[in-house]
Amino acid sequence: MEVRTCLIVDDSRIxxxxxxxxxEGLGFEVDEAADGVEALTHCGGLMPDVILLDWNMPxxxxxxxxxxxxxxxxxxxxxxxxxxxxxxxxxxxEALGAGAxxxxxxPFDGEILQSKLSEVGAV
Length: 123
Fold this sequence. Notes:
Layout: E1 4-9, H1 13-25, E2 28-33, H2 36-45, E3 50-53, H3 62-71, E4 79-84, H4 89-97, E5 102-105, H5 110-119
Parallel strand pairs: 1-2, 1-3, 3-4, 4-5
Helix pairs in contact: 2-3
């Protein structure tokens, strides 16, 4: 069976740990990044199948990362789920407009995450 990869990009170690447990339970191999710059560096070496992306982070936020990712060779391939506390409809529209595949509200659980990953065809 093909190994699916997921990059979790969040400045909160706790959120990364929770998300890692869920995603590994769905059969993904997981890497983590604490900000958009770290995530871009990772994607330059190995483009993941799925990216769980926080919006508000230091150094480079989720939106900055997403725009740069989509400009990279192969950067159109990963399914990107914004995982954030941003709830305003215009922010969600902005994320989807910038190339996010879907949107997950924090806090999320395994069921929500699995359902969203399923909707975008990642599981």
